[in-house]
Write a structure and sequence with these properties.
Layout lengths: L1 H8 L3 H25 L8 H35 L4
């Protein structure tokens, strides 16, 4: 019964959108770091690719964390006050 209520109340569109944006950000940062690191003369340059990759992954993970906080606050609100 409680699981059904959680699935019924857990329809926070903001949290879901932020999760999608975070995963897309992580994926694009990995792809862009591969593009930035390419060098025809020397080969692949990790010194250029690694900062781009790390920054994108950290930003995406922070966004995932904020999305989870929003979802948890919505769950708390649904348990105490009730659904919208």
């Amino acid at each position: 019964m409680e699981k059904e209520l959680n699935s019924l109340y857990n329809k926070n569109k903001t949290s879901k959108l932020m999760k999608w944006v975070a995963w897309i950000s992580i994926l694009l940062s990995i792809i862009s770091s591969i593009i930035v690191g390419q060098n025809k003369v020397i080969g692949f340059q990790w010194s250029l690719a690694l900062p781009v990759m790390v920054n994108g992954i950290v930003a995406g993970l922070l966004l995932l964390g904020v999305a989870e906080i929003i979802r948890l606050v919505q769950d708390i609100k649904n348990e105490t006050v009730g659904p919208d």
